[in-house]
Amino acid sequence: AQSVAQPEDQVNVAEGNPLTVKCTYSVSGNPYLFWYVQYPNRGLQFLLKYITGDNLVKGSYGFEAEFNKSQTSFHLKKPSALVSDSALYFCAVRATGFQKLVFGTGTRLLVSP
Amino acid sequence: EPEVTQTPSHQVTQMGQEVILRCVPISNHLYFYWYRQILGQKVEFLVSFYNNEISEKSEIFDDQFSVERPDGSNFTLKIRSTKLEDSAMYFCASSVSPTKGALVDTQYFGPGTRLTVL
Asked: Which residues does A43 contact at the CB level (< 8 Å), separation at least 6?
């Protein structure tokens, strides 16, 4: 069965500093990995995905994520955080042959001015 | 940019009543999904739907739940006899196509319907 772990409930970072939101996964076969962001009273907005190929994936709003097969990780990163990046971030995995996304518990990112 | 829309944004109902949650997927999408998020918990998959059939469902999606695409634009989730534990945020999503060989499409989510069962 697929699973995702987001070990940090909350990440605090100062504006302008780099940020990392951690995600590890467990899945049989090749993983398809996704990051979504949720702002208050909004739905889940797609940020980026890893399917195959280059381990560094670039997405919306300057975010990127690095797939590491040996560590089964897919950490979300941004070189310079903005206050407007403050939101709830979800990592998700989809296994080959399945349609469902399995989500992590989410990490709240707080960027202070 | 096209978006998934959901109505109502908030639904309050009495235990035992039937509710229908409505979604309008992105217009050229072929696959439709429902997820739910109980307050403070993970987002959980309920069901996926393609070509007027359920293509995948979770153990949560029991006989009290049903889905339908009644016309060319709407996609609905019906809960026949609501229970207190059905209180959650329900998200609809759509995608062009799921896994097909090396192509894995993205699921785009609506803003959700908050269901409160009293």
From this structure: B4, B6, B91, B109, B110, B111, B112
Picking from A98, A44, A32, the residue whose alpha carbon sits closest to that of residue B4 is A44
CB atoms within 10 A of CB B80: 12
Chain B positions touching A93 (Cβ under 8 A) are none
Instruction: Give how far the C-alpha of residue A31 lies from the chain's centroid of Cα atoms, to the nearest Å.
Output: 14
Q: Say how far apart CA B115 and CA B9 lie, in whole Å.
A: 9
Tokens of A4: 């995702």
CA distance B6 to A106: 22
A34 token code pair: 């996704």
Smallest Cβ–Cβ distance between B106 and the set A49, A90, A103 belongs to A49
How many Cβ pairs within 8 Å bridge chains A and B?
A: 60
Is B105 in CB contact (< 8 Å) with chain A?
no
pLDDT per residue as tens digits for the range A1-13: 889 999 999 999 9
Q: Which of B42, B56, B108 sits opposite A105 (nearest CB)?
A: B42
Strands B10-13 and B113-117: parallel
* Rounded distance between C-alpha atoms, residue A83 and residue A106, angstroms: 18
pLDDT digits (tens, 9 = 90+) for B76-99: 999 999 999 999 999 999 998 655
| Cα nearest neighbour of A32 on chain B | B104
